[in-house]
Q: What sequence folds into this?
């Protein structure tokens, strides 16, 4: 049985957060909550970009 590294765990958590926040954003009945969860989806995607070594792109994604 192989051990997960910190990178693997972080990538799985950021990916799961992105998918979960996107699903909640689609299902939310209030526009405000949809916007909040879409923002969290964007932050999760930026975290994935940062983990993959694309720090400039991740920072730009957060700023936008």
A:
């Amino acid at each position: 049985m192989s051990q997960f590294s910190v990178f693997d765990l972080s990538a799985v958590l950021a990916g799961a957060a992105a998918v979960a926040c996107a699903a909640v954003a689609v299902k939310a009945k209030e526009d405000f909550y949809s916007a909040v969860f879409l923002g969290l989806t964007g932050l999760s995607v930026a975290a994935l970009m940062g983990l993959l070594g694309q720090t400039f792109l991740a920072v730009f994604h957060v700023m936008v």
In short: The chain has a mean pLDDT of 92. The CA atoms of residues 47 and 53 lie 10 Å apart. The chain is about 80% helix and 0% strand. The radius of gyration is 13 Å.
